[in-house]
Amino acid sequence: MAMTSYRLHRPEALRALTRAMITAAGWSEDEAKETADHLVLANLSGHDSHGIGMLPLYFNSLADGHLTPQAKLSIRSEAGPFLIVDGNVALGQPAARGAVDRAIAIAQTGGVAVLNLLDSHHIGRIGHYSEVAAAAELISVFWVNVAGRPPIVAPFAAKQARFGTNPISIGLPVPGGEPLILDFATSRMAHGKARVALNKGVTVPEGYIIDGEGRPTVEPRHVFLQEGLPLGALLPFGDHKGAGLSLIAELLSAGLMGAARIDQKPHKTWIINSLFGVLIDPARLEPDAALRQQRIESYLAFVRAAAPQDPSQPVLAPGDKERKMRIERERDGIPLDDETWSQIVAAAKAHGVDAESF
Ligand code: NAD
């Protein structure tokens, strides 16, 4: 496979381009800003799979009429700590941010919020919402399913896919410090990372993917729908453990409430997320913030002091890697491969926006 080249882009230019594309397609300035900030922060964090390379997919959904600027989230019910929100397949980043902001207000008042956001369009990097909750000094636990697509992750010991990449994110604020943000897909590799590898023309490491016959492969094309090629699967992380978490995420986020599930009616250009979340005010557990800080930081210091297997790879805590990457990419720019950029240019052009002018 030939490796394609890439160009470095300034984050502010990519934000401006994304805002221009989204407003040109009919969404409001606020929705465009929320989406642009979210996507570019994903790139800055090193998660290109959830950065502005998603825009062409969103614009395909728009072109097919599956995603519309008119769709908005609506509150289904709010009672005590419980908040149930219909996503109505609205643009996901602003929809999920709206639902999480409302849940934050509930948790800040009553100490806890239980949120179920149902049937939003793709909501992006789930750790984003844990960072938002942590900035409001709240613990968060989010479970998410992925529907509207064919199943793409195999259950443990299976040759065929039955799950989405069903991510989980947990955020723990540290008083006076940076939060712990543990955020990952329950597949060994996020599907978007296979897309990035496909666009770059590179293989993926062994042990991540099986082909349509269930055989191990390193070719990312096997996990994308293509004429004449049976769809393969990503493998779950941690064998039966990741597979079990994925199954629970499907039922907790969408299954219990009858929202879109992975085994129902796949739409080629739709990516639907439902989210189950719990937000907790840690001050209701330990009111003394200084004590909380000291207890978390002393344990983190103990963990970080473990001797690394490879001296060039220090032992990290959840969230460290993304913060380090943000510093590097703010300084050096965000790399986008030629294929991803040409898809963005084409999606922008369809709405009269010249991506090269940003
Ligand atoms: P990943 O494998 O890169 O894991 C990221 C997590 O592991 C982070 O918490 C990070 O801080 C931590 N981490 C990374 N390297 C570490 C190290 N060396 N030591 C200690 N901790 C380390 O993540 P992923 O599974 O590729 O997921 C990428 C993104 O995709 C996530 O943001 C996820 O929310 C998102 N996602 C979204 C959807 C969706 O439908 N919306 C679906 C799947 C995944």
Protein architecture, described:
By secondary structure, the chain is α+β, with helices and mostly antiparallel strands. It has three domains: 1-70 and 340-358, Malate/L-lactate/L-sulpholactate dehydrogenase, four-helix barrel (Hypothetical Oxidoreductase Yiak, Chain: A, domain 1, Orthogonal Bundle), CATH 1.10.1530; 73-187 and 238-286, 2-Layer Sandwich (Ribosomal Protein S8, Chain: A, domain 1); 196-235, Wheat Germ Agglutinin (Isolectin 2), domain 1. The protein is 37% helix and 18% strand. The protein is built from ten helices and twelve strands. It has helices at 11-24, 29-44, 55-63, 92-110, 127-135, 191-200, 240-255, 289-304, 320-332, 338-349; strands at residues 6-9, 74-79, 82-86, 112-121, 139-147, 168-172, 180-184, 209-210, 216-217, 233-234, 272-280, 334-337. The chain has a seven-stranded mixed β-sheet with strand order 2-3-4-11-5-6-7, with helices on both faces. A three-stranded antiparallel β-sheet has the order 9-8-10, with no helix packed on it. The radius of gyration is 20 Å and the shape is globular. The two termini are 31 Å apart. The mean pLDDT is 95. Bound molecules: nicotinamide-adenine-dinucleotide (NAD). Nicotinamide-adenine-dinucleotide (NAD) binds at residues 47, 49-50, 122-127, 144, 146, 165, 167, 169, 181-185, 190, 193, 273, 316, 318-319, 321-322.
Query: Can you summarize the main beta sheet?
Result: 7 strands, mixed
Write the CATH homologous superfamily of the largest domain: Malate/L-lactate/L-sulpholactate dehydrogenase, NADPH binding domain
Strand percentage: 15-25%
What does the radius of gyration come to? 20 Å
Count, helices: 10
Which CATH-level-2 architecture of the largest domain?
2-Layer Sandwich
Which series of helices and strands comes N to C? EHHHEEHEHEEEHEEEHEHHEH
